[in-house]
Structure formats: structure tokens, C-alpha cells
Design goal:
The protein has 489 residues and is of the alpha+beta class. It is 24% helix and 24% strand.
Length: 489
């Protein structure tokens, strides 16, 4: 069966690539069409106006890819163009791919969506250090995989956003929608324990290999070095690539425009799960009445989206468009902004991948032009068109100083924030290199023996220095908030 599924995935792949290269008049779901030249002009104008470094566009029609093209640059310093095979960090598009693998386990009766996750664990969840914060809240015992995959667990998006940086359950699990990366990470934890396999192995064997997604992985691969995109911030500064070493279902997946478009196309063909199981992914799990997607725990509600039936399935948002049920998924990371929007019955839609923090500003005008009227909840998502946004604030002027090696070495070491994050500080020439967990290290330049600023973002940090000896704490200044991390051995 696996061999047949792999062959089916390959057949879809080759079909869509040929379709993309042969089509010049691109059909819209309303029966009209747009020319490839018009799409080129639209995308190029939007990239220039919105200061977006690069973007990849895939258009779907009748469950086939009819347009696939990359625009702009993957590396501004070396003037390298973005290509359909340039590896990019998918951010939260990872979640939709992960749900497909979980549903394979559901289909094979390895896990049950409605069985409390505690029944899958050898020990109570709070006995695991990463979830010790839940020891006084018995509601964790009610949480199921269905709740985790539909963002109804009660968790925040990330515990680092909490005032005390601890994990809390904010409402009775299953009662309302609140987007949560923490929930997806707990689902990964459960799945890895049940199967005894690491996430990367599961994703490769159950999704990437069968669908011939040859340039996709949950961690960085040496083969990606031949063609990858740097991420760029709001000011066009390079953040580099994301060479992840730890697989995270919530956002570590590395992929390409061609590979993720192939994944969506296969989902439209109900591969690799079959029609019944694929359909379960897009079944409505919870109605959404939050006024906005983020902040995820904002109590403000609205009925404005009742007319389109805005809701959540398993890993995908759902609403009713002029063309029937639509499903969508966003990706939002530093220097990465993505959106997939697909109308299931006609098999039409669009995938947009960008390597710029300004990318969301092109979503609405691009979709309105290429696809037409969609009833997509742009305001709920917070997707303001680029020409309606206020001008960016001026960059703070920094004044670097030269420190001695002894001064730099006083602040090196490891600093931790509970189980959330560990920063490793090392010396790199005349400045610092700071790495969070397994993410790409960032350069920090000195303004004083204790004050440093990022070379590629607006982040700053201050080290608490005693009269002599090494620094005892690191205080990150992030978006107007101070986060203190203590030195650890």
C-alpha cells in the first residue's frame, strides 16, 4: 500500500508541474481568468510598494497547480533570485502538515482524537519537567488530541507571552477557540511517545516521501544549502536562514513553494489519507467568535463572522466562501509571512510564501487581484494592505564601542528562562553571538560593557554585572518588554 500511495503522490506531482508550465490564462473560481502577465505585474508592483524581498505564488484550479512562480530575491547581498525550489521556513504552515500525519495515526487506530492524552503517557503530564506548571490544575486530564489540533485546549499561544512565563490553562478545555502553538507541541510530545519515533522520522515516512516533497524536512538538511532563502525584517535587514536542528511541529518545517503546493494539491485529491479521513480534517470543530485571531486570549468577541461560519477544523481554519467551504492556514515567523487559502469543492485557491516581515501587507491586494472575491476574514487575521499601514518607525541610532576580550568574556555563558528558552552567549570577534535554543545565532554589538544591541533586529539586551566576575543575568528588551534570564551552569 505504501508503494501505491507513493506512486499516486508522484503522479499528482508531475501533473501539476506540467500544468503550471503550460497555462497562460489562469482561471479564477468565478469563471473569469487572469493572464500570467497580469499576475507578474501585480506581484512585482506589490513587492516594490510593500518592500517585500521575495514571494512565491502557486495558484490552484480544479485540484491542479496552474501557476507556480517565484519573484524577488532570496539573497539581497548576492542578488540571488528566489526560486520555486528555494528552501524557506514554513512557520505555522508546519502545523497543517503535522495534522496530516496525526490523522494517519488516527486512521490506523494508533491514536484516538477523543481519548484524554494522559492515557497515552507513562506518567502524569505534570511529572514531565516541561509541563510541571500544570501540577495544580487538574483540567489537563480532560485535554484530547482533538482539542490540541483545533486550538481549544485553553493554552496560550506560547507560555513566553505570559507575565510569569509559565504554562497555564485559561479556560475549560474544548469550550472556545484560542490559537496555541503550545497545544501543537503537546500533541507532538504525545505522538512521539505513542509511536516511539521522533517527529522528523514520522513526517518523512508518512508525508514527505510518499508525496515526493524532496526539499522538505522538519530540520535543516545539507542538501538545502544549494538553494535557500534568507529571512528579512521590516527594514530589509537579513536575518539569515533558519538552520533548525530540533523538529518542532508548531513551526520548524523547512519547505519550498513547489513542495508545499504539491502537499495542498494532494490534500485536494484526498491523498495520502483517503476521502473519509481527509474530510475529518475539514470538519467544523469549534465556531470562532473572537474579534481577532491575535492576541489569542483576548476576551473581545464579535458576531461579524457568523455570516461566513468562521470556525476551526483540525489544523486548518474554515469558513464558507462564495465557492463553498474554504480552508486556510497562515505562517508567521520573524522574516517569514505565508498564507494558503483553498476552496475545497472546486479545488481552486492560492499559496503565498514570502521571506519578508512585510509579507502580510500584500496578501489582500494579491488575493483580490489573482483570485477575486473570497469573503476571507482579512481583518480578523490582522492583514492590513501595505498602503493602509502607518509608516514604520525610525530605527534607533546605536553607537557601538570596542570592548576588550576580558569584558566580552564576562558576559558569555548560558542563560535560561525556566523550560521555555536557553540563550547561549559566545564571543564572535569583537562582538557577541547569541543563540536561542537551536535557532540561528544572532550578532549583538556592544554599546557598553553591559549593553548590547542586535545587528539584524530592534532587540537589545543588558547583562547584570557584579563588581567582578561573570554576569549573573541577561535582560532582553523585546518590543517594549523586559525578559530576565538567569545564568545557568
Amino acid at each position: 500500500m505504501r508503494a501505491l500511495e507513493r506512486l499516486a503522490g508522484l503522479s499528482v506531482f508531475f501533473t501539476v508541474v506540467l500544468a503550471a508550465s503550460a497555462q497562460t490564462a489562469i482561471p479564477r473560481p468565478d469563471g473569469s481568468s487572469i493572464s500570467a502577465t497580469q499576475i507578474d505585474q501585480t506581484v512585482n508592483n506589490l513587492l516594490k510598494g510593500a518592500h517585500v524581498t521575495g514571494a512565491g505564488i502557486a495558484v490552484f484550479h480544479h485540484r491542479r497547480i496552474v501557476y507556480l512562480k517565484a519573484y524577488g530575491l532570496r539573497d539581497t547581498e548576492n542578488k540571488l533570485p528566489l526560486t520555486p525550489d528555494s528552501v524557506m521556513t514554513s512557520a505555522s504552515l508546519s502545523k497543517a502538515a503535522f495534522v496530516t500525519v496525526v490523522m494517519r495515526l488516527v486512521k490506523d487506530h494508533v491514536v484516538d482524537l477523543d481519548k484524554p492524552i494522559g492515557q497515552y503517557l507513562p506518567h502524569p503530564l505534570p511529572d514531565y519537567p516541561h509541563y510541571a506548571d500544570l501540577k495544580d490544575d487538574p483540567r489537563w486530564q480532560r485535554i484530547t488530541l482533538r482539542m490540541l489540533l483545533s486550538h481549544t485546549s485553553g493554552f496560550p499561544n506560547w507560555r513566553g507571552l505570559e507575565d510569569d512565563h509559565k504554562l497555564h490553562i485559561h479556560f475549560d478545555p474544548g469550550t472556545r477557540y484560542a490559537y496555541s502553538g503550545e497545544g501543537i507541541m503537546l500533541a507532538q510530545f504525545v505522538v512521539e511517545i505513542v509511536t516511539g519515533k521522533p517527529l522528523e522520522q514520522l513526517m518523512q515516512q508518512d508525508l514527505f516521501v510518499p508525496l515526493h516533497m524532496t526539499r522538505t524536512s522538519m530540520v535543516w538538511q545539507p542538501a538545502f544549502e544549494s538553494d535557500f532563502a534568507n529571512a528579512y525584517d521590516e527594514y530589509g535587514r537579513s536575518l539569515g536562514p533558519d538552520r533548525r536542528t530540533a523538529a518542532q511541529a508548531a513551526g520548524s518545517m523547512q519547505t519550498t513553494l513547489r513542495d508545499y503546493a504539491t502537499f495542498i494539491c494532494n490534500m485536494l485529491h484526498s491523498k495520502p489519507l483517503g476521502i473519509p479521513t481527509t474530510g475529518r480534517i475539514f470538519d467544523r470543530q469549534i465556531a470562532i467568535h473572537s474579534a481577532h485571531q491575535f492576541p489569542s486570549l483576548d476576551p473581545a468577541t464579535t458576531t461579524a463572522y457568523d455570516t461566513i461560519g468562521l470556525s476551526y477544523g483540525l489544523g486548518w481554519g474554515i469558513y464558507f466562501s462564495p465557492y463553498g467551504k474554504a480552508f486556510f492556514k497562515e505562517g508567521h515567523g520573524e522574516g517569514w509571512r505565508h498564507l494558503a487559502l483553498v476552496f475545497r469543492a472546486p479545488g481552486d485557491g492560492i499559496l503565498i510564501l514570502t521571506n519578508s516581515s512585510n509579507g502580510e501587507g500584500i496578501f489582500k491586494p494579491l488575493i483580490d487581484t489573482v483570485i477575486g472575491a473570497t469573503s476571507f476574514p482579512f481583518e480578523w487575521e490582522g492583514y492590513t494592505p501595505w498602503d493602509k499601514l502607518p509608516p514604520p518607525s525610525s530605527l534607533k541610532q546605536h553607537h557601538p564601542v570596542t570592548l576588550t576580550p576580558d569584558q566580552l568574556n564576562r558576559v558569555t555563558g548560558r542563560y535560561a528562562l525556566a523550560a521555555l528558552a536557553t540563550l547561549t552567549v559566545t564571543v564572535s570577534g569583537d562582538h557577541l553571538s547569541i543563540q536561542e535554543n537551536d535557532e540561528t545565532p544572532q550578532d549583538y554589538l556592544p554599546e557598553s560593557p553591559q549593553d548590547f544591541y542586535s545587528a539584524t533586529s530592534t532587540d537589545e539586551c543588558t547583562f547584570q554585572l557584579p563588581a567582578d566576575g561573570p554576569a549573573q543575568a541577561l535582560i532582553l528588551h523585546l518590543n517594549g518588554k523586559d525578559v530576565e534570564l538567569k545564568r545557568v551552569p
